[in-house]
Each structure stands twice: as C-alpha cells, then as structure tokens.
What we know:
The chain is an alpha/beta fold.
Amino acid sequence: xxxxxxxxxxxxxxxxxxxxxxxxxxxxxxxxxxxxxxxxxxxxxxxxxxxxxxxxxxxxxxxxxxxxxxxxxxxxxxxxxxxxxxxxxxxxxxxxxxxxxxxxxxxxxxxxxxxxxxxxxxxxxxxxxxxxxxxxxxxxxxxxxxxxxxxxxxxxxxxxxxxxxxxxxxxxxxxxxxxxxxxxxxxxxxxxxxxxxxxxxxxxxxxxxxxxxxxxxxxxxxxxxxxxxxxxxxxxxxxxxxxxxxxxxxxxxxxxxxxxxxxxxxxxxxxxxxxxxxxxxxxxxxxxxxxxxxxxxxxxxxxxxxxxxxxxxxxxxxxxxxxxxxxxxxxxxxxxxxxxxxxxxxxxxxxxxxxxxxx
Length: 359
C-alpha cells in the first residue's frame, strides 16, 4: 500500500477503487492494465508510472524508517482505523501514528481556530476543557499556533487524550517550538499523519490535513476565526461529511470573531457558549446507565405509534418531520402531534432545522 500511495497520479479515492477491484493492494500491480482501464474514473493518465521501480524503492525506504522508529501504521482496511474517518470517501489510505492512541469506544471532537488566539479565545479553551473533562472525550487538533496548541495543552493538563494531526512526516514537529509539548501529548494521546518522512509542512499539506481533523470526529468546534482562514475550511469539510459544527460567538467588531459569527449567522454552525451546548446537541450524557433505565421505562409508556417513531429515530438519528412520516407510514398531521406528545414525555427533542432526535 505504501507503493500505491507514492504514485503521484493516484489519490486516495482512486487507490480505493483499484484495491476494491483487484482485491488487495498487491494485486493492483499484477492486474492487467487493460482491466484497470475499465474501472470508472481510471484512465491512462492515472496509471502513468504505476509500474515504475522508483515507487517500490521509495516504499521500501519509508518502510525502513517506519520500522526503525516504531511508527504505528493503520490502513483504511484495518479494524482500528478511526471509525468516523472510515466513513469519509476521501479518507487517507494509510495513517502513521506515534504515542498512546486509543480510539475504541471513545467520544471524539475536533477543535480548531485562528493562529492569533486572543485572551478571550484562550480563556474559552481552558473553560471548555474543564467543563467537558468528566465525559473523557478525545480532543483532536492540528498542534499549530494559537487555538490548536492552546486546546491540546489544556486537554493534556486535564489528563484527556489529545491527538495532533500533522501536515508533515513524523520525523519532525512543526512549528519547532512546539517540540517542548510533544512528550506531554504522547503520554496520553499522540500524533497522526498521512505524510511520509520525506514530506515537508507545505501549504497544500495543511489543507489536506484539515480533512483528517474534520473526518476523525463526530463534531468540529471553531473557537476563533477571522473572516477567512483554515479553520473555516475545516468547518466546511466537517459539514460536507454531515458532522455537527459548533462556533464560539464573539463581539461583532472583534476581528477574530467574524468567522465564527458568520458561521452562526449563516446557520452553518450551532452556537457554542459552553460545553453544555455541545453535550446537549450531541446527546452526550454523564449518567449514561441511569438514562438507559429511564429510557426503558419511558418506552414502556409509549403507544405503538410512538414506539415506531422512537425506534426509527434511534436507528436513523436526526430526521425531518416529512421523513419520519414517510418512513414510519404515518400521516404527517398525526406524526406532528405524536412528536409533540413524545417531546412532552421527554423521549425526543426538536433540533434546529426542523429536525427531531431520540434522547
């Protein structure tokens, strides 16, 4: 798979098509060229250089680096590949990791923002981590200047697992001054990247890295942002993946609140004034087991129509009224009144955009 990843004309999406067609990464290189050309989206330009020896040599060199430095390698085919990222069509073929990363059965959120963090943004990061720490989420960010390093240092101090997604190989840390925080992160968390040791922190790499930050988590939080910036790109990517986006509001005349205020104003993000907002919107609960008992009791009190709707929302997540009525085969007027009764019972809740979800 390293060899396939090194071929410049083959991106993650095309590589996955080739592997799916051939059955394995190795089989791609033994499959007849004319058969590969029959794959949708694969042409002569894409396959240019497929059989060049330089790609195999580069892969062997990188494999040597991986072995010597005890780098953890995960492919998109592996069970321990980040579960949210696995649902992203353009997720990386391979992820290289270092540290003590444990993604199993964990709540994961990404936090991004401006490099030019203000005192307001820094104070919010500290307070947010203190408030959300009891739920023990994983905090993902880019380990860059500003909001990234602020939120990751705060998470590390609270003993939360934090993951830095890098825009370069694991043979370096950028910016260099953040090397002093590397050990703290690796003690409980670590670093992930799709880039080889030969990669440098070039601008285009940061843009590619942003999709990993957005794709790894179930929600992305923008703390501070100017009118334009990389954190807004990350928010757009998260939205394209159908993930929740949150933005911290600020004063209308603050330069580094304009981006967040616009996200909220344009209904591209939920307003985030405290961790409680995120916990509510994501349906994270501190007393999970107690809530399960309550839900079971409430379920017994529902009539057949309510149970049908509740089961549909539990399975399908957030849904529009029209979709609920259609899929549950209930007249829309009846579905509307039933949802109101269920809301009064506390088993569902309405959300922005005329959505409903089970509690």
